[in-house]
Amino acid sequence: MRSKRTRAFIIDFIVMIIVSYLINTFIPPTRMARELQAKSNDLLEKYTSHEINFNSYLKSYGELSYDLASEQKVNNIAYLIFIISYFIILPFIWKGRTLGTFINGIQVERFDKGYLYLHQLFVRNLIVVGIGYLLVANIGVYFIPRSYYFIVISIVGLIQIVLALFSAYMILFTKEKRGLQDLISNTEVTRIIKKK
């Protein structure tokens, strides 16, 4: 089952990359976004060539990250809509399946075999896919002050990574083979049983 979950995750990750590429193709970055990205690259070059110290780099990069996120709101919101549609709405409609889980013959179910609710899929994907990080990064542009934006999203991103690693550990090394996302959302990954 672990290998099926891994293969399903890889397929879903590839779908995410393809859709991200398509979004950036059909909604190309603005001139300002390209300039901000160039400034970010220049800043990294200055840091790696020791023209500026780490504190200066971090402060300038933090401000640039806020400006870049502000400039790419449309792309980021489009990507967030895709993630919610693919990992929450699609499995809700398609009996706990994404393309990756379907191809590998597995699905997400409630642990007690009851009806799978949207909020369970939402909670589950806060950890698995990082919807929490995406929400904070997208909504934070409107509500988090510029000077704190990078700090907040860095902390949320770090928490996301730690939770994902802890969840992977649980799936690999615990008896139940349920990750943190399964326990919190009262779900489990099972084989697709074909009804005759």
Number of domains: 1
Distinct helical segment count: 9
Q: What level of helicity do the residues show?
A: over 70%
Q: Total strand count, please?
A: 2
Order of helices and strands: HHHHHEHHHHE
Description:
The chain is mostly helical. The chain has one domain. Helices cover 74% and strands 5% of the residues. A two-stranded antiparallel ribbon has the order 1-2. Helix 2 packs antiparallel against helix 3 and helix 4 packs antiparallel against helix 7. It is elongated, with a radius of gyration of 19 Å. The mean pLDDT is 89.
Secondary structure layout plus pairing:
Elements: H1 2-26, H2 31-48, H3 54-71, H4 73-93, H5 99-103, E1 106-110, H6 118-128, H7 131-143, H8 146-173, H9 180-185, E2 187-191
Antiparallel strand pairs: 1-2
Helix pairs in contact: 1-4, 2-3, 3-8, 4-6, 4-7, 7-8
Kindly list the characteristics that best describe this protein:
196 residues; mainly alpha; two-stranded antiparallel sheet; 9 helices; 2 strands
Give a quick precis of the structure.
The chain is built from nine helices and two strands, in the order H-H-H-H-H-E-H-H-H-H-E. The protein is mainly alpha-helical and 196 residues long.
